[in-house]
Design brief:
By secondary structure, the protein is α+β, with helices and mostly antiparallel strands. Helices cover about 35% and strands about 25% of the residues. Helix 3 packs antiparallel against helix 5 (about 165-175). The chain is globular and about 55 Å long.
C-alpha cells in the first residue's frame, strides 16, 4: 500500500489543484487527502486519472456530520440467526439527481438516506448455528459490502461503493 500511495502522490502532485494522500485506513482504498477546501470533485477526478479507478471524495467536515447521523441510527428489529452491521454506501461519480427513497429494505439489509450521495446501511449478517455464548458470523454465508452497493445500484442506478462503520470510523480517527 505504501508503494501505491507514493506513486499516487507523485501523480497527484502534477494535478491542479495539487493534493496529497496523507494517510489511509487498512487496505480498503480509503484515504485522508490534504487538498484545498471545496475541490472534492477535482480531487476525485485527479485520483481517477492517477490510478485509473473511480473514487468518492468528501470533505472532512461533511464526513463528521453524516457519520454522527449514521451512528445515531437505530438498528432494525432483531432477527434470530442474524446480526445487523452498520455501514454506508457512497455514490461514485456524477449522478442524474434521481430522488432517493427515505428508507427501504432488501434481503441483504435495511437502507436509509443520509444525503443524495450517501446511504446508511444496516447490513444483515448471518450468524453461525453454534451453542457458544457469543455468536460468530457465518463466514460461509456472509454478505460482502459490495452486495449492498449493488442493491442501491439496482434501485437508483449509478455506481456505489460501501464500507462498514468500523472502516469509516478508522479513517476519521486518522484524519
Amino acid at each position: 500500500m505504501k508503494t501505491w500511495v507514493f506513486d499516487l502522490n507523485e501523480r497527484l502532485s502534477w494535478c491542479t489543484p495539487a493534493s496529497q494522500i496523507v494517510d489511509w485506513f487498512d487496505k480498503s482504498g480509503n484515504f485522508v487527502i490534504d487538498a484545498e477546501h471545496g475541490v472534492a470533485l477535482v480531487v476525485a477526478e485527479s485520483l481517477c486519472k492517477a490510478s485509473k479507478k473511480l473514487f468518492a471524495v468528501f470533505l472532512l467536515a461533511d464526513l463528521h456530520t453524516w457519520t454522527s447521523r449514521l451512528k445515531n441510527s437505530n438498528p432494525p428489529p432483531h432477527k434470530n440467526g442474524f446480526r445487523w452491521t452498520l455501514g454506508a454506501s457512497f455514490r461514485i461519480g456524477s449522478h442524474p439527481g434521481t430522488p432517493l427513497a427515505e428508507e427501504w429494505e432488501t434481503r441483504n439489509g435495511y437502507y436509509f438516506r443520509i444525503t443524495q450521495d450517501i446511504i446508511g446501511v444496516w447490513k444483515q449478517d448471518r450468524l453461525e448455528d453454534s451453542p457458544s455464548l457469543r455468536p460468530r458470523l457465518d463466514r460461509n454465508n456472509r454478505i460482502p459490502w459490495g452486495v449492498v452497493g449493488k442493491d442501491i445500484e439496482n434501485k437508483f442506478g449509478g455506481q456505489w461503493t460501501s464500507r462498514s462503520n468500523k472502516t469509516i470510523s478508522g479513517l476519521l480517527l486518522r484524519a
